[in-house]
Every structure is written in C-alpha cells, then in structure tokens.
Amino acid sequence: MVTEQHVPPAAALSFQDAVARATALIERWLHDPNDLAELDAFPDGIFVRNLDRMLVLSNAAYRALFPPGQVSAGRSSLMYLSADVKRISERSDNLLLEGLKFLEMEHEFELTPGQMCDLLVYKRLIRGPEHPPYFVGVLRPVGRYETSSPIRPDLKTAARLVSEFDDVDLKICRGICDGATNQALSVELAMTTRAIEMRRQKILSQLGLSQTVELVKLLVRLQDRGYLDLGI
C-alpha cells in the first residue's frame, strides 16, 4: 500500500526550507522555461535577474511587493527599487560576483505608504553550462508595522537634531546612507539586530520621517548645504 506523502505549504516552512524549495523550482524552470505554475503559486517572492540586473523572471509574490505595473520582465531592478534597497542590492550582487556562495540578510522594506516590514532575503548566483549566470533571490516579508506621518522639521531644525545624536546614532545614519543592513550594523556596533531596528525607528521619529529613503535624502541635503559634515 502506497501512502501519499504530505508536503507542507511553503508558507508553513522555515525560511531556509522555503529557500531550498524555491531554488529547486528555479532549477526546474531553467530546464523548462514553460514550467511556471508552481512558481506563481509559491507564497514567498522569487526573482531571477541577469548580470545586467535586468529581471528575467519573477513570481506573483515578488511582483506584489511593488506598486502595480512597476515590475516586469526585461526591466532593470534599478528602475523600481528605492534608493536604500538599490544600494543593498548592488552591494550584495558584488559580493556574489566576488565569489561568495550565497548570502542571507534582513533589511527594512516599505510595502505600502505607511506600512513597513523587515524583509528576509536569500541571494545566490546560479551558473550552468547551458545558460548564462543569473542572480536568484527569495524574499519573505516579516514583522509588518505601521508608520506615522509626523510633522517634519525644517533643515535648520533637522541639523540641530542630528547634531545632538550620540555616536551610535550617527554611525547608524552613516551606515544607512552607505546601504548597510541592520544585520551588518549589529555586527559593526556589537548590538542586536532588534536594537539597531529600534534605534533606526527612533531616528526616523525624531526627524519626522517615515521611510529610510527619506532619511538618506535629508542627510545628503544637510551635508550638501553645509549644515553638517556627516562624512557621507
């Protein structure tokens, strides 16, 4: 008697197990480009990009992370990623090209205006004799939370507020401008990822901001206009 083996849905899997299943689906797609049904049914986001960062393949869960119509095959990821996520993407791509086998990271991501999450990301470079190298990624949003829209201070007030930051907050600000993830900052500053996240949210709140990309723009403006020398 043969019994049917129960395979749990991907959403019930740990992120590591979901990565293994998603990678297997991509390997199947590489051998049969028409095999897309299970990819679109997969609950975690999946993407495949070429070395020029052009999107070759994405599933429904990946496209749902962005506003409708922004993501399509043949479009560069640099066209639809926010500035801070773009920096993270470029740095991780370079690490893989330099020989890193794979990487896992966590960074802040805006799902919709006013709603943020921590995004778990797995990336690797797939090489094969019958196809060019591809960047492959699996993404899972976790820890969704709402952000408020407080009143933003003028540049002079913002400069005063930033000048009152302690050394840790200033290092976090510089790291954010450089595209560093919460995980990378936690290692550099010997703090937990959660502590970094809380510091980041406090910084945004103090400056009347709701998104990390707004913080980057503000800090660049403060430095460019001579209010502060932040070393960015």
Please describe what this structure looks like.
This protein is α+β, with helices and mostly antiparallel strands and 232 residues long. The chain has helices at 15-31, 37-41, 60-63, 83-97, 155-163, 167-177, 182-189, 193-206, 212-224; strands at 45-49, 55-58, 102-112, 115-128, 131-146. It is 41% helix and 22% strand. Strands 2-1-5-4-3 form a five-stranded antiparallel β-sheet, with helices on both faces. β1 and β2 (55-58) form a beta hairpin. It is elongated and about 60 Å long. Mean pLDDT is 85; it is low at 1-11.
| Average pLDDT figure | 85
- Strand neighbour order, sheet with most strands: 2-1-5-4-3
Cα-based radius of gyration, to the nearest Å: 20 Å
Give a count of the beta strands, DSSP E runs of length 2 or more.
5
Shape: elongated
Order of helices and strands: HHEEHHEEEHHHHH
Uncertain parts: 1-11
% residues in beta strands: 15-25%
Structural class: alpha+beta
User: Sheet bearing the most strands, described?
Assistant: 5 strands, antiparallel
User: What separation lies between the terminal Cα atoms?
Assistant: 67 Å
Q: What percent of the residues sit in helical stretches (DSSP H or I)?
A: 40-55%
| Discrete helix count | 9
